[in-house]
Structures are given as structure tokens and as C-alpha cells.
From TrEMBL:
Entry keyword ATP-binding: yes
Name by which UniProt lists this protein: Flagellar biosynthesis protein FlhG
Pfam families, per the entry: ParA
Alphabetically ordered keywords of this record: ATP-binding, Cell projection, Cilium, Flagellum, Nucleotide-binding
Gene Ontology terms: biological process: negative regulation of cell division
Annotated residues for binding of ATP: K43, G44, G45, V46, G47, K48, T49, S50
Lineage top rank: taxon: Bacteria
Annotated GO CC locations: cytoplasmic side of plasma membrane; cytosol
SUPFAM superfamilies tied to this protein: P-loop containing nucleoside triphosphate hydrolases
Gene Ontology MF term list: ATP binding; ATP hydrolysis activity
């Protein structure tokens, strides 16, 4: 088995989880809101975008309506990884030239993608008006999708915290490398202490054996149990496989090119874990969280 599940509650209290679809509070009955999952990391090069792409494809094969937002606004990769050449991207959206629907493109297995433009340094610091407009426009899409996956940029920039606070679930990606573990902890610490995020999912990528993933999980839970009031939900590990690099070169998801590989099985197990409702009440709708983000950052960037 490639993905092992575990739960650890640092606060000493079991935090139940319930990943269910929620309704937008509009005063009338409406379509269920999409569940928003950020896929994030403290360090670059840990395979975050590969995980987002392959998990999205598996979820689509499961019958889910999936939207992937490439929120790595300065170094877009999802469209390249899928062999796509979109005509428009988020640069056109934030410039006011195109709507979200107009820049949306179709990817493998029918997933929808909001692509980001690469090499656009000015997008790495969105202003408040841009964030508010994106909030409103994304919220208008709530009935079209079951799940929204946000592939954030790596690190602890304002854009990273913005997209993570917007999500109902935060999936932190790391590897067994000491620097990646340290940076994953730093990211969770920032989101916990400044933005009051208390629940995180964890996946350990590029492991040689299953025990490596468990070791990383234990290290993070030991130190966070000592210094932070958070819970970490271990969703497992993805084995290192040269087929991953081949899939990247061929610009295809590994789950499509090599469906019988252990790595593909691990992605399938991870997708099932993310798609399975548990007992935690969701944070709320997308609107609720982004309003909360602006409340936490009053007087912030302009």
C-alpha cells in the first residue's frame, strides 16, 4: 500500500472533520458550493504541481467536476505539464481584459483549469481590489464544480497565505529533505499563528519507502505538538519514480501514461482520501473565508 492514513491532534482534543459541500448563503436555496482545497508547500521543487495535476485527473475520473487554479502566478506550470497552450490566462483576468470563464481551459480527463502566465512578476503581489474581484468572480462559479484545487506558489508570501486562507482544506506537500520539512513547518506556523488556521493535511512526496513518509509526519507532529495548537492529518506518501520525470517531459499526467505504476496508485489513494467526506464541519463558503482574510489584513496591501 502506498498511502497510509493517520491522525494526530496536537491540542489534545480530537478535531472531527466533515468535508461536505456547503450552500452559499444567499437567502435562497442554491447549488452546493464547491469544496476548496489548497495544495501548498513551504519549499519549491517538492512536486506540488504534479500532485495537483494528477489528483485532479483522478478525481475527474471518479465523476467529480474539478477546477484547478494555477495560483503560482509568477511561475505557471500546470498548463505546461498538461501539454496545453491556453490563449488567455490569469494575467488577462487581473488586467481586466478577460473574465474567469473566458480564460478557463479544458485539461486531461475533462478537468477545468484557470492557467497562470509565467514570468509575470507583477502578479506575485496582488492588491486588495484584485483579490476582492477574484473572490466575487470565483464565488459565482460555485455551482459548476464539486472541487476546486488551488495550486499555490511555494513559500510564505502574501499570495500564498491569501489562497490558503481561502481554502476549506489545506494540503501541505513536503519531501524527506530536512529543508523541505523545516519550510513545511514554517508555513504551518505562519498560517496557524497569524491566520488562525488549525487543521492541515500532509502528504510526503518523493519517498524511497513508506517509512520515510511516516518519519516526516512524526517529526512534524512532535515539534508542532510542542509549539503549535494545530492538527495534522497524514494522508500518506508518494513514492519516487523515474516515470514521473518522463511524464513531465511528455507533458502528460503520470496517472494517464503509467496507470499501473505504484506512483499512480498512490495518487489514486490520495484523491480518494481528499474526496471522502469526514467528520469536520467545513470552514464555510469561499466568500466567508475571503472576507475573513480581508478582516485579518485590514490596512494591508494596496
Amino acid at each position: 500500500m502506498n498511502v497510509i492514513h493517520g491522525r494526530f491532534d496536537q491540542a489534545g482534543t480530537l478535531r472531527s472533520r466533515q468535508h461536505r459541500l456547503t450552500a452559499v448563503d444567499s437567502g435562497t436555496a442554491s447549488a452546493p458550493a464547491a469544496r476548496v482545497i489548497s495544495i501548498t508547500s513551504g519549499k519549491g521543487g517538492v512536486g506540488k504541481t504534479s500532485i495537483a495535476t494528477n489528483v485532479a485527473v483522478v478525481l475527474a475520473r471518479m465523476g467529480k467536476r474539478v477546477l484547478v487554479i494555477d495560483a503560482d502566478l509568477g511561475l505557471a506550470n500546470i498548463d505546461v505539464m498538461c501539454g496545453l497552450t491556453p490563449r488567455y490566462n490569469l494575467n488577462h483576468y487581473f488586467a481586466g481584459e478577460r473574465s474567469l470563464t473566458e480564460i478557463m481551459t479544458s485539461g486531461p480527463a475533462g478537468i477545468s483549469i484557470l492557467p497562470a502566465g509565467s514570468g509575470l512578476q507583477h502578479l506575485t503581489h496582488l492588491n486588495t481590489d484584485q483579490k476582492r474581484r477574484f473572490l466575487d468572480d470565483l464565488d459565482s462559479l460555485h455551482g459548476r464544480f464539486d472541487l476546486v484545487l488551488i495550486d499555490t506558489e511555494a513559500g510564505i508570501s502574501e499570495n500564498v497565505t491569501y489562497f490558503n486562507v481561502a481554502a476549506q482544506d489545506i494540503l501541505v506537500v513536503t519531501t524527506p529533505e530536512p529543508t523541505a520539512i523545516t519550510d513545511a513547518y514554517a508555513l504551518m506556523k505562519l498560517l496557524s499563528t497569524r491566520y488562525h488556521q488549525k487543521s492541515f493535511h500532509l502528504v510526503v512526496n518523493q519517498v524511497q519507502q513508506i517509512d520515510e513518509g511516516l518519519d516526516v509526519y512524526q517529526k512534524l507532529t512532535i515539534v508542532s505538538n510542542r509549539y503549535l495548537d494545530i492538527s495534522i492529518d497524514y494522508l500518506g506518501c508518494i513514492p519516487q519514480n523515474p516515470r514521473m520525470q518522463e511524464a513531465v517531459r511528455r507533458q502528460k499526467p503520470v496517472v494517464e501514461l503509467f496507470p499501473n505504476q505504484k506512483t499512480s496508485s498512490a495518487f489514486e489513494a490520495l484523491a480518494r482520501a481528499l474526496a471522502t467526506p469526514t467528520e469536520q464541519a467545513p470552514k464555510g463558503t469561499v466568500q466567508f473565508f475571503w472576507k475573513r482574510f480581508f478582516t485579518l489584513n485590514q490596512g494591508g496591501e494596496s
